[in-house]
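Subject: for your reference before the review

Hello V.,

The reviewers asked for a structural picture of the protein, and I figured it would be easier to keep everything in one thread rather than splitting it across files. Below is the amino acid sequence we used in the manuscript, unchanged from the supplementary table.
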Amino acid sequence: MLEEMALLQVEKTTSGREYKVKDMSQADFGRLEIELAEVEMPGLMSCRAEFVPSQPFKGAHISGSLHMTIQTAVLIETLTALSGEVRWCSCNIFSTQDHTAAAIARDSAAVFAWKGETLQEYWWGTERCLDWGPEGGPDLIVDDGGDATLVIHEGVKAEEFEKMGKLLDPSSTDNAEFQIVLGLIRDGLKVDSRRYRKMKERLVGVSEETTTGVKRLY
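And here is what came back from the structure prediction:
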């Protein structure tokens, strides 16, 4: 697992935007599909027309964990049109449309998603979408299934344990996927011992897509 994670490196566009997608050469195709989808999503397009002048998301950090599809791309570009800064990952290892991810990464927002991710890659992408550097994390999370929100909750819990002298131990659970999550949190705390408390302190709220995710939040 450690060898696999070591191979994952964030890339950057010429403008400095971070991303990790399958194939940036598909971006033009993705852009054509996004333009078609805009015609089919008049609600979001009306939001742009109404709220672009007031720029309500100016300065806001928005992290998203939602299927990286053409329709999601229209949502992302609505958020950026209203002046939000966006970092995005997929909530599913198989649902990403790679041409869409490429177009958004090139043109609009930081994206960490590709079709057919391993579980290690999936959780790495979730961590990257929450990573806003020293500024403390997102103001808003657009979540589907609660995974991005779960990382922050578990991270804060781990930091509280460390304050009491108890180190996070991924082997403390026999759930293989949760071991991955705890391993990523542990590695993050080696860089910044208040990493997740900073996120918690900045975070205003979460929008959750599914009943399953709401149940997990409770």
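For the response letter, the relevant points are probably these. The radius of gyration is 17 Å. The mean pLDDT is 93.

Happy to draft the paragraph if you're swamped.

O.
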